[in-house]
Amino acid sequence: MNTAMKSVGAESVAWRKAMAALRIFQSARGSAEVPRRFRVQGVDLGAWVYTCRDRYWDGLLSAAHVAELQSVPGWSWGPVRPGTWRHAFDALARYATIHGSTLAPAEESVRQWSAAQRKSHTSGELCAARSALLETLPHWEWDLDQLRWHDGMQAARQYAHKHGTISSAAPGTCVGGFGLGWWLQRCRQDHRAGTLPAPRATELEELPGWSWGRGEDSWERGMAALTRYVAQAGDACPSQHVVIDGVALGVWVCDKRRRYRLGILPPHQAAALQGVAGWQWYPQEASWQRGLAALSEYVDRHGGACPSSGCRVGAYPVGEWVRAQREAYRHGRLAARRAAQLQAVPGWCWHHQDCPAGHCCATSPS
C-alpha cells in the first residue's frame, strides 16, 4: 500500500473514531457543544470539533462529512462567518435554488466570487473539496457557455409554456432577468453561420412555434393562423393573447397594424391583409363607428338619443356604449372629433338627466 493510500485510510479511521466520540458525548450530555479542551476515549474531541467548524467555513469539509455532522442532534456550525468561502457558497446556493441557475447572482460580490472559482478550477488551483461542493449546486457548470445555454433554454421553455409559443418573443423580451429575445437572436445568427451545434439546434426546434427565419416564414405562418381564426371566429380581430397553431396571432396582428401605421409594412402584405374578411387596420375606430351607427339607428326609431343602459339595437349594447361615451367626455378622455360627431346626433345629451322625457327607451327591436 502506497503512502497516499495509507494517509487516506488513517484519516478515515481518525474521522470514524472522532465521530463515535462525538455521538457518545452527545448521548451523555444531550448536547453537541463540546468544550474546546475536552477529551474522551483518547480523542481531543473539543479541538476536533473546532477544526471541523473551521474547515466547514473554509469550504474544505466534504459534503459527506458535513451531512454526517449535521445528523448529530444539536450540531451547530457556530455563528455565521461573513467573508469566508462557505458564506459566499451559501449565498450562491440560495440564488441557484430560487432561480435554477448559477449564471448571474444579484449580488456583485457573489458574481465575482463564482467567476473566481471557475478561474481557479480552470488553472487547477481549486482544491477537490471545494470543486465537489460547487458541483452539488443545481445546474452548476464549469463551462460558462454551457451554463448560458442551459439558462437560455430554461427561459425559452418558461416563455413558451406561458404564451403557448416562442414566436412572439421580441428582441427586448426578458424572462426572470434573462435577455431571452437577444439570446434567441444570437442562436439564429449562429445557426446561419453554421456554428450552432446540431444538438442545440434540435433543442430549439422542439420549442412550440420555433422558426429559424423571422421573415417570410413567419409571415406565411401568421397568415395561415389568421385565416383559420377568421373561419372559426367570424372576425379578424383576435385579442392580444390568442395563439393559433403555435403562432401568437394577437401579437402578430398588432405588429402588422403597427407597421402599417408607420408605413413600413411591405405592400404585398398590406394587400393580403386588406383582402381578409373583416380585417381592420384601426379596430378601435371601427368599433367606435359601430357604436355610432347603432345610436343613429336608435334615433331613427325613437326620435331621441338617450337609450337606457340596458338598451340594445339588435345585439349591440347601444345603451352601455352611450354611457361609456358620456363618462369618457366627463373625464376628458373623448377625442374632440368624436365629441363633435356625437354632438351632431339629433337629440344628443351629454348628461342623462338632461334627456327629454319619453326618449329613454329600455329596449329596441332587432
Explain briefly what this protein structure is.
The chain is mostly helical. It has 15 helices and no strands.
Summarize the structure in words.
- This protein has 5 domains: 15-71, no CATH class; 85-136, no CATH class; 144-206, no CATH class; 214-275, no CATH class; 283-344, no CATH class.
- It is mainly alpha-helical.
- Helices cover 57% and strands 0% of the residues.
- The protein contains 15 helices and no strands.
- Helix 4 (85-99) crosses helix 5 (108-122).
- The radius of gyration is 35 Å and the shape is elongated.
- Residues 1-8 have low confidence and may be disordered.
- The longest helix is centred in the N-terminal third of the chain and has 27 residues, at 3-29.
- 20% of the residues are buried.
- The N and C termini lie far apart (101 Å).
- Pfam families: HA (PF03457).
- Residues 12-72, 84-137, 147-208, 216-274, 284-346 form the Helicase-associated domain.
- This is Helicase.
- Keywords: ATP-binding, Helicase, Hydrolase, Nucleotide-binding.
In terms of topology, how is this protein built?
Layout (H helix, E strand, L loop, with lengths): L2 H27 L15 H13 L5 H8 L14 H15 L8 H15 L5 H7 L9 H20 L16 H14 L4 H8 L10 H18 L15 H14 L4 H8 L8 H20 L15 H13 L5 H8 L23
Helix pairs in contact: 4-5
